[in-house]
Amino acid sequence: MRKYVKNITICLMLVGLVSACSSTQSLQEYYVDNAENPNFISLDVPASILNLEETDLSEVQRTALGSLKKLNVLAFRKTAQNAEEYKLEKAKVKAILKNDEFVELMKLNSSYGRGVIKYLGDEEAIDEVIIYGNSDDKGFALVRVLGNNMNPAHLVQLIQVIQQSDYKGEGLGEIGQFLKG
C-alpha cells in the first residue's frame, strides 16, 4: 500500500510539473532549437556592425543607436526539398507571434512578401523588436532587435540613417545574400 501511495504521489507531481510548463514555445527557444538546423541560417549580429559611430548623427539618433545591443537573425531558406518543413516552421513562428505579449507595430506587404513588426515592452521603453517576413518562394526571416529602452520614434530616425548610410550588409554573410534576394 505504501508503494502504491508513493507511485500515485510521484505521478501527481509529474502531472503538476508538466501542466505548469507552458505549451507554447518562446521565440528565444525557437531560435535555440533551430540554430543548428541545416534549413536555417542563424546569426547574432552586434549593433556595432552597422558602423554608424563615425556617421554624423543627431543626439536623438545617437540615443537610439546607444539603445541597440544586437540583432538575432534566423532565416529559413525554402527549397523544393523542404517545402513541407517550410509550411510547418512558418506555422510555428506565426503561433509564437500570436502571443499577447507581442504588440503589433505594423504589417508589411510588398512585392518581396508579407511580414509584421512587433515589440515587447511598453511604448516608451521597448526591449525587443521582432521583424518577421516571409515569401512563399524564398522562405522566411525572423529578426530580433534587442536593446534597452528603445524608443519607437528614435528607432524610425535610426532606420532612416541606416538607409542613407553606405552600409551594404557587410558582416552578414549568407544572411545578407538571403535577405537581398
Describe this structure in words.
The protein is α+β, with helices and mostly antiparallel strands and 181 residues long. Helix content is 40%, strand content 32%. It is built from six helices and six strands; from the N terminus they run H-H-E-H-E-H-E-E-E-E-H-H. A six-stranded antiparallel sheet has the order 1-2-6-5-4-3, with helices on both faces. Strand 4 (113-122) and strand 5 form a beta hairpin. Residues 14-22 have low confidence and may be disordered.
Q: Would you summarize the structure shown here?
A:
This protein is α+β, with helices and mostly antiparallel strands. It has six helices and six strands.
Radius of gyration: 20 Å
Order of helices and strands: HHEHEHEEEEHH
Q: Supply the number of structural domains.
A: 1
How would you write the strand order of the largest sheet? 1-2-6-5-4-3
Shape, per Cα inertia axes: globular
Distance between the termini: 67 Å
Low-confidence parts: 14-22
Work out the strand percent. Answer: 25-35%
What is the average of the pLDDT values?
78
Q: Could you estimate the helical fraction of the residues in percent?
A: 25-40%
